[in-house]
Amino acid sequence: MNRRPGLSVRLKLTLSYAGLVLVTGTVLLAVVWLFLLRYVPDSDQGLLGISPNRYLLSRIFGRAAAVAMGFLLVFGLVGGWFLAGRMLAPLDRITAAARAAGSGSLSHRIRMEGRQDEFRELADTFDTMLERLDSHVAEQQRFAANASHELRTPLAVSQTLLDVARKDPTRDRDELLARLQAVNTRAIGLTEALLLLSRSDRGTFAREDVDLSLVAEEAAETLLPLAEQRGTTLDVTGAAARTRGSAELLLRMVTNLVQNAVVHNLPGGGTVTVHTEEQGDTSVLRVENTGHPLPPELLPTLTEPFQRGTERARTDEHAGVGLGLAIVHSVVRAHAGTLDLAARPGGGLVVTVRLPGAP
User: Fold this and answer.
1) How far is Cα 299 from Cα 311, in angstroms, rounded to an integer?
2) For range 239-245, the mean pLDDT
3) pLDDT, tens digit, for every residue of 200-222?
4) Partners of 356 in the beta sheet?
5) Residue 61 CA: distances (Å) to CA of 38, 52, 188
6) Higher pLDDT residue, 53 or 247?
7) Which residues, including other chains, have CB under 8 Å from residue 131's CB and lie 6 or more apart?
8) What is the rounded CA–CA span in Å between residue 69 and residue 33?
9) Nearest to residue 332, comparing CAs of 303, 307, 292?
10) What pLDDT shows up at residue 315?
């Protein structure tokens, strides 16, 4: 942004200091003049020729006052310039860090020493912002790289199938079409998941009153055939839990949680329980499923995009693209909620979503 050049903050503070010193000196001199010299007799000869009078004192006092005012002006300018420089030194470090961040260097930190004051609070806030921004940029870069890799895989498979079909015209056409359809369906699903994740991250959606208990029942009804196919018992319990948000995104959130709970479960005889309730001004959704034991170090990675985890990866027709819990986390964050993942002692996972209740 183009701005007209102006006085620097250091020069403005210097002039302010010098002006304050001059005003203070002027007030003191005025007080001396009014309350001291006014009681001295005003006579050219003085009192009996031996006592000083107002005429003589004013001439002597006037010269001394002029010298004192000049000294105060120089002292105010020099001292003000020095003090302003000392006071604004932390601001120079903050400005240098901001310029470095503007040029793309997000790893630089101010780390200002000393006791807490306004400048150090600003520096600490700026360091915190840089840390979050650096983490966010790194996360976006990993996400872009992983997304490119995931999208490249089905495209490369499609290209390979087409090359094989071109070189071998006698190959079974129905088998080729079936494999191309499967690959294309996976690519479409990945693209839709990426778009949904981007939409939830932006938070650009209309908000309305949503009952999580009804959303849970709808998601369970949709996934009931899958649960019956895998021999998993699916139950929805609890009471109404109202919140404000996007009904579509919240439905996708619950659907992803229930689908993950069904797919990542025991081969047979597993259970999935979806529970909703209100705790004060918070609406709670809890999805609990049986399954194999999960190592504690795996839990923090489950909400990262494309991080399926070796213990939860699937190779069957229900294999996901690694965005299920990432979408859940993004939707929860867009609704100002919290997401907690905990391993069940006997195996499986407990996912708890807490969202602000509807007023």
Assistant:
1) 11
2) 93
3) 666 667 889 999 999 999 999 99
4) 282
5) 13, 12, 93
6) 247
7) 109
8) 14
9) 303
10) 39
Q: Residue 44: pLDDT band by 50, 70, 90 thresholds?
A: low
Structure tokens that stand for 314 in this block = 């699937």
Helix ranges (H only) for the chain are: 9-35, 54-102, 118-167, 173-202, 212-229, 247-263, 324-334
Q: Among the listed ranges 44-53, 67-76, 140-149, which one has the minimum average pLDDT value?
A: 44-53
Distance CA 188, CA 182 (A): 10
Confidence (pLDDT) at 237: 94
Q: How far is CA 62 from the centre of its chain?
A: 64
| Residue 226: pLDDT over 60 | yes
Closest by Cα among 327, 352, 331 to 277: 352
Angle between helices 247-263 and 212-229 (to 10 degrees): 30
Tell me which DSSP letter residue 314 carries. -
Token pair in block for residue 58: 């004013």
In the DSSP assignment, the letter for residue 65 is: H
Place of tokens 């901001």: 98
Distance from C-alpha of 151 to C-alpha of 339, rounded to nearest angstrom: 28
Q: What single-letter DSSP state applies at residue 196?
A: H
DSSP characters for 91-142? HHHHHHHHHHHHTT--S------SS--HHHHHHHHHHHHHHHHHHHHHHHHH
Q: Are 329 and 353 in contact (CB under 8 A)?
A: no
The CA distance from 66 to 62, in Å, is: 6
- pLDDT confidence of residue 9: 80
d(CA 270, CA 234): 9
Name the amino acid, one letter, at 200: S
Residue in 302, 296, 304 with CA at minimum distance from that of residue 138: 304
Per-residue tokens: 82: 């020095």
Q: What confidence tens digit (pLDDT) does each residue in 114-169 have?
A: 787 888 888 888 888 888 888 878 777 776 776 676 677 678 878 888 887 788 77
